[in-house]
Design goal:
It is built from ten helices and no strands. It has helices spanning 2-31, 42-53, 63-89, 98-128, 145-156, 158-162, 166-192, 198-228, 240-251, 260-286.
């Protein structure tokens, strides 16, 4: 069990280092106003952040996911590994089946969503503050993750503040985690053929990340908008369905693909690095892979 948590933690560290700049761009694109948008595309957003806020602008809010993502990955891979082992031990074949993998992934998603929602809320608020302003003169509403959390609680309370976006996070993470582990199981079985190899793992893992994010991107857009909503005291959305309805009314189906390109740019290298790290740690500690 310790190996699963250690592997997940190492994967989380890798994910933050590789993926956070792409995540910042994704959040900026998803939360900008439809009328008169500040950024007209992924590369324009990247270049604008670097020009106006320096390279550190891409790593705004990184402390929250650095603590959160490593912890969350430990939860996800730890819970997933234990669930697969438990379900497999109760099966007649004593081998993991796809239904075991999908159910274990969904349970891991349930366990991570409440914690992930709070970390994402803080990360989102930090990523959008001072956007478009030069680093030297940017107005900082929050001085850091802890200060951000305290101010959200003071100004918006527990239910409408700290818990903002928790249900939309659950709707994203439960099916997303099941899809993630299911797709990786299928692709790794096809590409690896029972034998560990760095390149096949990287290919299977990167492709898995892209497929799973494509499936859950609409829920991620809604989650980001709900968590960014209310800044400055004005709330536009009354809930998930209201956010879906207003986003569609304003932008059509294109609303739910906002941030898709930076998401996919991030998904392949980040998930390739994460799952390779996890596979290597598990192989070194107990000579097995993610699925047992």
């Amino acid at each position: 069990m310790a190996a699963d948590f250690l592997a997940g933690w190492c994967g989380g560290v890798t994910a933050v280092i590789v993926g956070h700049p792409f995540d910042t761009v994704k959040i900026r694109l998803q939360t900008q106003a439809f009328g008169g948008p500040k950024y007209n595309g992924t590369f324009h957003c990247f270049s604008s952040i670097i020009r106006q806020e320096s390279i550190t602008g891409l790593y705004k809010g990184v402390s929250s996911p650095f603590v959160g993502q490593t912890f969350l990955n430990a939860i996800v891979f730890g819970v997933y590994g234990r669930m697969v082992a438990y379900l497999t031990s109760r099966s007649e074949t004593k081998k993991p089946r796809m239904r075991h993998i999908l159910l274990s992934g969904a349970v891991a998603g349930v366990c991570q969503a409440p914690v992930c929602s709070v970390f994402d809320l803080v990360k989102t608020r930090l990523q959008i503050q001072g956007k478009g302003e030069r680093a030297a003169v940017a107005r900082r509403v929050y001085s850091g993750p802890i200060n951000c959390l305290i101010k959200i609680y003071q100004e918006e309370g527990l239910q409408r503040g700290i818990c903002r976006g928790m249900l939309s996070t659950m709707l994203r993470d439960v099916p997303g985690s099941a899809i993630y582990f299911g797709v990786y199981s299928g692709l790794s079985g096809l590409l690896l053929g029972g034998h560990f190899g760095v390149l096949p793992v990287l290919l299977a893992a990167g492709t898995t990340g892209c497929i799973s994010w494509l499936c859950i991107l609409p829920f991620d857009v809604v989650k980001s908008r709900i968590q960014a909503d209310g800044v400055g005291g004005v709330s536009r959305y009354s809930g998930i369905l209201d956010c879906f309805r207003k986003s569609y009314a304003d932008e059509g189906l294109a609303a739910f693909t906002r941030g898709m390109f930076p998401t996919l740019l991030r998904a392949f290298p980040t998930n390739a690095a994460v799952l390779l790290s996890v596979e290597v740690i598990l192989k070194l500690t107990n000579s097995r892979g993610i699925h047992g």
